[in-house]
Write a structure and sequence with these properties.
alpha/beta; 14% strand; globular; 7-stranded mixed β-sheet; 8-stranded parallel β-barrel
Length: 1059
Amino acid sequence: MFKASEVLDGRYDNATLEELFTAVTNNYIVDEEQYLSELIKLVPSSEQDIEQVTRRAHELVSKVRQFEKKGLMVGIDAFLQQYSLETKEGIILMCLAEALLRIPDAATADALIQDKLSGAKWDEHLNKSESLLVNASTWGLMLTGKLVKLDRNTDGSPSHILKRLVNRVGEPMIRQAMLAAMKIMGKQFVLGEDVKEALKNSEAKRKLGYTHSYDMLGEAALTANDAQKYFNDYSNAIRDLGEQQYDEANSPRPTISIKLSALHPRYEVANEDRVLSELYDTVIKLIVQARELNIGISIDAEEVDRLELSLKLFKQLYQSEAAKGWGLLGIVVQAYSKRCLPVLCWLTRLAKDQGDEIPLRLVKGAYWDSELKWAQQAGEGGYPLYTRKAGTDVSYLACARYLLSEATRGAIYPQFATHNAQTVASIDAMAGNRIYEFQRLHGMGQELYDTMLAESGAKAVRIYAPIGAHKDLLPYLVRRLLENGANTSFVHKLVDPNTPIESLVVHPLVTLLGYKSLANQKIVKPADIFGAERKNSKGLNMNIISESEPFFAALDKYSDTQWTAGPLVNGKTLTGEVQTVVSPYDTSLTVGTVAFADANAIEQAIAGADAAFGSWVRTPVETRANALQKLADLLEENREELIVLCTREAGKSIQDGIDEVREAVDFCRYYAVQAKKMMAQPELLPGPTGELNELFLQGRGIFVCISPWNFPLAIFLGQVSAALAAGNTVIAKPAEQTCLIGYRAVQLAHEAGIPTDVLQFLPGTGAVVGSAITADERIGGVCFTGSTGTAKLINRTLANRDGAIIPLIAETGGQNAMVVDSTSQPEQVVNDVVSSSFTSAGQRCSALRVLFLQEDIADRVIEVMKGAMEQLVIGNPSSVKTDVGPVIDATAKANLNAHIDHISQVGKLINKLELPAGTENGHFVAPTAVEISSIKLLEKEHFGPILHVIRYKAADLAKVVDEINSTGFGLTLGIHSRNEGHALSLADKVNVGNVYINRNQIGAVVGVQPFGGQGLSGTGPKAGGPHYLTRFVTEKTRTNNITAIGGNATLLSLGDAEE
């Protein structure tokens, strides 16, 4: 662990850049308790230190509060005080206002207003504050307020008023009012729509001693065109800033902040080569231009996954000829990251080696809630951030102490971004004679810094000021609100006269040490999000070098491995007709060999499973469950081999392989837990006295499990583990294309303690093996995932055989749609459409096939989607760069290409990517998007990277629902809409098993999104859900007349106690 407490004692003074970089990556998810115990030692903590800082903070807050008394309260501080983020209204206003700016058609805008306005407790905010902004916002902002005179006594609550108002003046009028309102808010948070306007608007502040760092609004680029547009914006901004004259006696020259994700559509670790060449070239052009005009550049911080990549790029930029000797290339570092301090040490070393000062802005960090969620989803070993606000505050002070120490003198120019009086006071106290500056956001923290600057000898204060169109405002605004509007927020409470000053200026060390533990135990570790009974499966983050390096080294061990498989019957691998297995991405590569089962193997397997059933069904459910828990652990221990197999045999990308192993692990653990809940004890049923009535569940017999090639480990083991948990014996038949993975999984199951006769493995074709095992009268059930046609064939086979009528559990195809209306955010839609359509080369049951776009936004979405498709990398799935790998075999490829040829003539081709060199020997199909007139043109599911797009009119939404339902399929549905009522109503009307709102529609998680469809898409119950095991069991009721052996003594004893 990084020894934070020793950074000031010279421990790392002579460390090389490489050594410090290793320290950075090793600190990614370091233990929070241990590391904070180290970090705390850097914060001045004597009673005198804490008392001095607290007194100074108290003085500052008192002065700020006087501003309010003078009626100088302006802007966002009043707004935040009114709309603590707990209130729905603030959020509704934000969503509503932002969505309104994006909606081109009036009807959808009106519907959205009605949806959002019905949800809020408007009364509470009416006339609570005199600040224009708050009341303006409350009443669709002030304009709507003018439309009607409010009288509480006669009108009742604002929600009633709103309904009446809507009825009387109509929604178009309210819509105009909301748009005007947005402009008011826009002015509050954005300094200008362009640099020239911003410069004009900032003159008054410069006279007060403020300077600025200008930032262009906008989120990450998805396409090359987006990136070019942002580059032009930055370049024009630098030009305009450079042309202006500044009085530097008053305040320093302004700088510009740039977001790397805006300047390249693939700013991510997987595309490091492109980032360090293409993105590097782009930023160098800006550096050259900015240096000539003497405008400093600061590189903004983004998500934790990009930190290490951003440092590599920064080093390359800083050491370039363009930047050498300049000293104005700055960087932003986030204190909520556990890697913050080692990053500061690394940057100090970089600066000392070259001799140019690095302006360094220390911020707390703006993606806290998202990062926690991502860590949980990814099954991380811990969190990359601190789980308490006080932890981040202490980290900020520890890092500030280092930045203000002798260790960084001449190397780092510290810039402290904070709106917290306590932090300001602490930094002042630690600074000594170091030169530094404070930074605040435009529209926030103004009272605090006006107070500071009004005091003599105050430090420079730089305002971080966004520039851009109002429609780009919201993502920025929401981050600000989450950061500052929450109840723990200092800004929110600073100006609230009801909050005692004492509670505001408590030192974060005092707060942190006041808790029982330094880490927040209420935010459970990612492994524990499913509670005590089930551990989350273990993932890993390939963007973090300390995690990816050992992982790739482990994968490399299998680079030359050849696997063999055959029928695994009663624990012995039998011989049979041998098939050579080749890789779908390069058919000249052999993966191994498999022997297919013959009639003899089939008979031995069924007989063996039949004989084993009697003892297995009576094995305690705990024993069965423990074997599955052990299997889950073995899968994690053998993760790398299984991932390599998924890539080599099934053509899966590495990330898909990681997810596949995790899903298999989740299935084993989930069904183990479910089986124990359902089967450990009989259910006691009510009845007359003197009688014991119990309901028992037990296995049905031999379950035949027939799984597909698209999830050769996860679905294979999902079926098998469910059947085994419920007490059935199993005959597992993998898809003929992916027998090696299935064989390896069965070997691990046997190793975990599943008896060899209880689980039998029969590789082979459907025609030989599948038809024989489904026709056998000894079997007790069939679990199948695959095409609807094959499921119907199995159903007929089962109907025609002698013996009992047995259950068929089938999960089959889909014609999955996504419906997008004009309230949605086009960039988010495109991200989700591209991942839902082209991940795994479109070979997921849940993949998006038909995209319905409201015509008002169709052109914009299609344009961005086309550009985003151009960024997809097609090729060898064992490379982390690859987005789209091969389809499974030559037949699939031929069928998909035939469909592309046909549908491109019937419809209008949007985009069909070129297959790159190196794909000639594999089964690659070009990702394709085509516009068509109706879903009825698609007679069946086309299982590959092909997206069909249909435009619809807002008024015709009911027809869209009917069209989707008319296919008869019902697997997944995606909905993108900011209109919640509309989204929920659509979800209700479309007959599907899984609905995903405002996200992609793939990647169902076991126990979280149970998966399975209705209609032609399957029989249910859903895999990975609480009802799945019920189809694998049979029920027995036992009634025992307990009075027959000596009367009913319990009855006699009743009532005595009361007499």
